[in-house]
Automatic annotation (TrEMBL):
Protein name: Amidohydrolase family protein
Family classification: Belongs to the metallo-dependent hydrolases superfamily.
Domain Amidohydrolase-related: 10-300
Name of a matching Pfam family: Amidohydro_2
């Protein structure tokens, strides 16, 4: 017997932005950068709480987690102040993953400043590195850089987590990071980016994910599963979603929308509805962990009341 989840949702990964007001190197101009979903011009406009909740209509989103948006790297605290002002006006976001360049000379001071904000729970610094499995060995990511790791160690001082976005072929470096810093919670973003859907690619992705899951201080966001030029379909992602949950367990995994970025691949209803359909055979307690409880435990969202009148929300 299946029971599709209809309870409260904490969206563990989404973005908000106003690129014409706040400089984002990849969003604010006419130029584009190479992007895993291809042309992303459609998401270069404003995306604010009213747009998000219009997209999320029909799903009981009670709290959200904002993740840094590659805002102007010269002003990381500007993004944090901006997000807290949005939260003051709208009641969301309820938690934040802030920007921090861990190899910067002022990393320790920046982390202290970020941690002082009420909603900051984690930071993200994409570590770069090999662009394909074939390049592993000849290149390494920042996760193996001593200076970067000194910045990473500072997270423990402030009780901050680390959100890691890197492809699955770099996860052995993430294993060493989790091993060497067991007191720091590491949260892998976007399911480890399983873009290679050939059988051998998926087998290698699962094996890498399983090695990382051996470390108890690691959790997983199931999100970012779109493919360039293809509409998002639950059946295309079914095996990945189920294997990710089998590897980490629902107590260490959480669903997230990655909106508005994943809007390039499908609607909120298609993606979140697809996730609900794919796990409807799990116990309802496990479904609640995936959609709400794991995110609540890890991100400890501020319990504000969402102030947007649903009848006044505008379309994007």
């Amino acid at each position: 017997m299946t029971e599709r989840y209809s309870g409260p949702i904490i969206d563990a990964h989404h973005h908000l932005w106003e690129p014409r007001r706040n400089f984002h190197p990849w969003l604010s101009g006419a130029e584009t950068i190479p992007f895993r979903y291809g042309d992303y011009s459609a998401i270069k406009g404003n995306y604010l709480p009213e747009h998000y909740f219009t997209d999320a209509a029909g799903h009981d989103v009670v709290q959200t987690v904002y993740v840094e948006t590659e805002w102007d790297p010269r002003d990381p605290l500007g993004e944090t102040r901006y997000v807290h002002e949005l939260a003051r006006r709208h009641g969301v976001p309820n938690a934040m993953v802030a920007q921090a360049w861990l190899d910067a000379e002022d990393a320790a001071e920046l982390l202290a400043a970020q941690a002082a904000f009420a909603r900051v729970r984690s930071v993200r610094h994409k570590p770069g590195g090999p662009g394909s499995p074939e390049e592993v060995g000849s290149q390494r990511t920042l996760m193996s850089d001593d200076h970067w790791r000194q910045g990473y160690a500072e997270l423990q001082r402030h009780g901050l987590h680390f959100d890691l976005q890197t492809p699955w072929w770099n996860l052995d470096e993430a294993c060493r990071l989790a091993r060497d810093f067991p007191a720091i919670q590491l949260i892998l973003n976007h399911t480890g980016l399983p873009s290679d859907r050939r059988p051998e690619g998926l087998a290698a992705w699962r094996a890498a994910l399983a090695r990382l899951a051996e470390w108890p201080n690691v959790a997983l966001k199931i999100s970012g599963l779109g493919l360039a030029g293809q509409p998002w379909r639950a059946e295309d992602n079914a095996w990945i979603v189920r294997e990710a949950i089998a590897v980490f367990g629902p107590e260490r995994a959480m669903f997230a929308s990655n909106f508005p970025v994943d809007r390039l691949c499908g609607s909120y209803a298609t993606i979140l509805g697809g996730f609900k359909r794919l796990v409807a055979d799990l116990p309802i307690t496990a479904q609640r962990q995936l959609f709400h409880d794991t995110a609540q435990r890890l991100y400890r969202p501020v319990a504000d009341v969402i102030r947007l009148d649903p009848y006044l929300r505008t379309s994007a």
